[in-house]
Request: fold
Amino acid sequence: MIDLGSDTATRPSAAMKRAMSEALLGDEQRGEDPTTTALEERVAALLGFERGLFLPSATMANQIALALHAGAGDEIIAHRSAHVVHYEGGGTSMTSRAQVYGLDTPRGLFSAADVEAAIRAADPHHPRTTCVVVENTSNGGGGAVWPLTLLDDVFGFCRDKSIAVHVDGARLWNAATALSLPPRRLCAGATTVQVCFSKGLGCPFGAVLALSDASWPRARRLKQALGGALRQSGVCTGAMLYALDHNLEGIAKDHARAQKLAAGLAAIPGVSVEPVESNLVFFSTGKPAAALLSAVALRGVRLGLVARTVSPERERLRACVHLDIQDDDVDAALIAVRDALSAP
Reply:
């Protein structure tokens, strides 16, 4: 199966498994796992923060960050398509007990003016706006990369208004690659940043939350309460260190193959492809997607279906190019989609 359903489909390479098996280990709950400590320090430096906190998943990292920035009676501003809105099990209602206001702007991106318009008046009838979430790249926005001017605009406005900014950087590595910039440049002005290792970097699981020294103790306590504190976590963080050393350069190849896939799909009659800026390719065919997904799967290719569409005819399909996808896989996927659409 050529799995384009998600960039989480990667499997650890033999070399990554070797790094995992050879990692120095200790009890992470006691702060004694040297591999995990090395990862946290390295990611904090990469992103320009004082501390890093290893966590099992990007979802846990996001939820801990939001709990740092918001509480009962507060409101978090995010795009209506954001991962924290749709794909984290309603976590904000459990961890921070805050509500989320969803912005409805193109491609998952918004400006400081959009944020300003969404902030509630200082009135006891309204929740307090305490946090803004920036998702970079924007999954729901088709893998859109935030332009620096827009990003800096939002960061600067929130700083002036004493509003925290959390960057959901599950695909921040992709955004940095697309802009040919160091990741820390895309975080300058953020309060917290989450980076995921189980997508573009090909690890089996794991994320790091970058934050300040002052925020670290509470974040560490939340990690313990949510069951995220592990024992010999170096088995996983060894893979994450390996990925930083060896897999970052593969992201540019993912982006190039995504462009190739998008161009091939656009050449198929009836297929409409959204702009491609990273490793995600969103498209629609004008037909109900479920039958196409099944027909393509029978031809050895897995695609993803984006939920919450207006009608079956407007359903968005998603293809994620990742470390395990090669040029031949892109060619085979195009043939599968073409044949499935032309079949009676």
